[in-house]
Write a structure and sequence with these properties.
Shape: rod-shaped
Order of helices and strands: HHHHHHHHH
Radius of gyration: 46 Å
Strand content: under 5%
Number of helices: 9
Length: 379
């Protein structure tokens, strides 16, 4: 048996084994990629459904705003420009809603294709997002070696090395052990024949050299394929690291966006509370002031009539009584006037408490820097 024959056969077996392992890893990677695409399509469907729901709510809000603006315009309290702007916003949200519905149907069809169903966008998906825990910190990079695509290219490198060794050993001298009919070859029985030994030795040495350089080219091709396999491994490893870095960066970006959106929600709630506070202040304080004016006018007229005061003196007395100042420079004589002064003082205290409560609530929901700027502007 020629030198390197067993090594060449073993390299062939190892190369075939590594190729089979690479194909198996490719199969596993294909299955995992399919599962990942199904998950991404599922999340895309939920995302578009939630965006569509938000667009519907915005449309409902803009429709109500449009009705209010139109009513104000009909009553001369709003301009035609305000009406046109509201209509433009409503048309824009309707266009956005149509686009989101189309994106939702496309996502459903993609998911149906992955699931082996006819893509008619009729599959029912629950609008529920799973709460997954974040990956633990400090995971070693060696975990990437478990990725099937990494395993596949690593096995291809092993196969390429064995094929290169097989091509190199093919350039060595050899002779066959079996004939064409699977019987013992005559070359083996005649190997020790002195008359044939020289010819066999010469033939086994010269034949690899007289093949026109085919075996040498086979070695060069195998070497190039080996280098290509190593290059593919490096590129696949870089792609794996890139996937990890992109995923981590995207996770951090989404976390920052969530924090910013929560801040937007908090500030929006503050703005809503302030607007609501102003609304109720107007609708609560204005009637109280009107009530004070109503209940202050008639008692003042009665007191002026009883006490024989002039109208200015009556106005002065009602003001210092309602504000609970009471300088004492004007004194009441009759019991009726004193009873009416108690009524005016109670109304004044009710209004004062209401205004103080509104002021405290306003300062509670308003940024302190804004309050300081307002105070400085007033001063």
């Amino acid at each position: 048996m020629g030198t390197g024959c067993l090594g060449r056969l073993k390299s062939g077996v190892d190369a075939a084994t590594a190729s089979a392992q690479s194909a198996e890893a490719d199969y596993v990677f294909a299955r995992q990629s399919l599962s990942a695409n199904i998950a991404k399509s599922y999340l895309k469907v939920i995302e578009t459904k939630q965006q569509t729901d938000i667009a519907r709510k915005n449309k409902s809000i803009l429709t109500k705003t449009m009705r209010i603006t139109q009513a104000k315009y009909d009553n001369g309290e709003s301009s035609a420009q305000d009406v046109a702007l509201n209509r433009a916003q409503l048309a824009s949200i309707e266009q956005q809603l149509i686009s989101l519905k189309g994106s939702q149907r496309n996502a459903l069809r993609v998911l149906e294709v992955f699931l082996g169903r006819y893509p008619n966008a009729t599959i029912e998906i629950k609008d529920i997002l799973l709460q997954l825990p974040p990956p633990p910190a400090g995971l070693p990079s060696e975990l990437l070696e478990r990725r099937p695509d990494i395993v596949s290219v690593e096995r291809k490198i092993a196969a390429a090395y064995n094929i290169t060794y097989q091509a190199k050993t093919a350039r060595l001298a050899s002779f066959s052990l079996t004939s064409e009919v699977r019987n013992s070859s005559s070359s083996l029985s005649d190997i020790l024949n002195p008359s044939n030994l020289l010819w066999q030795l010469a033939a086994n040495i010269v034949t690899p050299l007289m093949d026109g350089g085919k075996r040498k080219i086979d070695v060069e091709i195998a070497t190039v394929e080996q280098k290509q396999a190593v290059s593919n491994y490096v590129q696949t490893a870089l792609t794996a690291f890139s996937d990890v870095e992109n995923s981590l960066d995207q996770g951090n970006t989404l976390a920052q966006e969530e924090t910013a959106l929560l801040e937007v929600l908090t500030e929006s709630n503050k703005a809503y509370n302030i607007a609501e506070l102003f609304f109720w202040s107007i609708y609560l304080v204005a009637p109280l002031l009107a009530c004070l004016g109503f209940f202050d006018h008639y008692p003042r007229e009665i007191v002026c009539s009883i006490e024989k005061w002039e109208k200015f003196d009556g106005l002065y007395w009602s003001f210092i009584t309602a504000t609970t100042v009471g300088y004492g420079d004007i004194r009441l004589i009759t019991k009726t006037s004193k009873a009416l002064s108690i009524l005016i003082a109670l109304i004044g205290m009710i209004v004062a408490v209401t205004l103080n409560t509104a002021s405290v609530s306003l300062e509670k929901h308003t940024d302190k820097n804004v309050i300081e700027k307002i105070k400085k502007a007033v001063e």
